[in-house]
Amino acid sequence: MPIPSPIAWTPRHTIRILDQTLLPGEERYLDLDTVDAVAEAIRTLRVRGAPLIGIAAAMGLTLAGAGRPLTLDAVRAAAATLGATRPTAVNLHWALDRMLARAERTAAAGGDLSTALRDEANAIWEEDRVMCARIGAAGADLIGGDAVVLTHCNAGALATGGMGTALAPVYVLHAAGRRVSVVADETRPLLQGSRLTAWELGRAGVPVTVIADGMVASRLRQGDVTCVLVGADRIAANGDVANKIGTYGVALAARAHGVPFYVAAPTSTIDPATPDGAHIPIEERAPEEVTGWRGHPAAPAGARAWNPAFDVTPAELVTAIITDRGVFAPRDVAAAV
Ligand code: MRU
After folding, report:
1. Parallel, antiparallel, or unpaired: how do β-strands 326-328 and 320-323 relate?
2. In this structure, how many other beta carbons lie within 10 angstroms of the beta carbon of residue 31?
3. 215-223 — which CB contacts under 8 Å span 24+ positions?
């Protein structure tokens, strides 16, 4: 069964998203026709994953006119709204900066802003699709054949404009007839691993085993995992990697067990302006995401919680970074952009 696209234009030039908060139980699509609706969808993780939120924000910017012809001021205000939704994934700001630059060029030349911004959003989306395919090819070469891949969070088709980043090599190997399977940790607190990664791999026919986050080290000690492969939300100039909270622990466990730890990301995720991981802004989300699940308590009433949505894996724990421009040692990754 094919994996549905997590985002699309409607015939009215509004935006249709697959509401990822409802998966795997329900496949529901939402039509978004205002900048605020797109911002809400990004903030609440109805659309999520670094490349996809960049694409969604780019598409969302085209709604800035609220039914009237677009103006540069409205586009700038919409970019501020969308840019304030999530701080860690640099793709969001990368995409919005690119859209703003196109808007300014178009306005200066007296061109039509709506057409130009739709074209630019489509270009960002299409380039991401191509980058995913290149990451898939490079990663499949690196892994080289049959494999058991352990991943954290969801860096697949649901998180991008294409076949994914961390899951792209898996899809390429699977399509080539290799025996490839995935161990997906559940990724507390929002369960992107068990809800989303397992769902899309299942649709694609790739064997997947779900484990709780606390089982990662034990699974790596079993000796059957070929490599760990994760995505990224921002890669600093020195090769430090921000990704979903829990990634750092997986990297430590991989190092302890001699398992290669690969990061797969498009060049839009590499941020040469951020010198190292300490300078990456880490999103903090509501404590209720930790103390409960969809209204059911997971901790006693009044318990305090800490809920950083991302962590930083230091470059020295990363074996290699797989990009659309090839495979890099972490310390050399800035050369990819
Ligand atoms: O909070 P999320 O679900 O948006 O976090 C997603 C991740 O951390 C992914 O691993 C990352 O964005 C890469 S997606 C190709």
Report:
1. antiparallel
2. 12
3. 215/185, 216/150, 216/152, 216/185, 216/249, 216/250, 216/253, 217/253, 217/256, 217/257, 219/150, 219/183, 220/150, 220/253, 220/254, 220/256, 220/257, 220/259, 221/257, 223/257
128 CB within 6 A, ligand 1:
no
Looking at ligand 1, which atom is closest to the CA of residue 50? 12
CA distance readout (Å), 283 to 113, 277, 311: 32, 13, 9
Tell me if residue 56 falls in helix, strand or coil: helix
Closest by alpha carbon to 152, among 247, 249, 283? 247
159 lines ligand 1 (CB under 6 A): yes
Give strand pairing partners of 130: none
In this prediction, residue 147 carries a pLDDT of 98
In this predicted structure, the answer to whether residue 166 has a pLDDT above a threshold of 90 is yes
Q: How confident is the model at residue 1 (pLDDT cuts 50, 70, 90)?
A: confident
**What distance in angstroms lies between residue 244's CA and the mean position of ligand 1's atoms?**
6
Q: Residue 246 C-alpha to ligand 1 middle, in angstroms? A: 12
- Tell me how far apart the alpha carbons of residues 277 and 281 are, in angstroms, rounded to a whole number: 9
Residue nearest to atom 15 of ligand 1 (CA): 155
Residue given tokens 């969604």 in the structure block: 56
Average pLDDT in the 213-242 region? 98
How many CB atoms lie under 10 A from the CB of residue 143?
22
Are 228 and 234 a contacting pair, CB within 8 Å? Answer: no
Return d(Cα 271, Cα 337) in angstroms, integer. Answer: 9
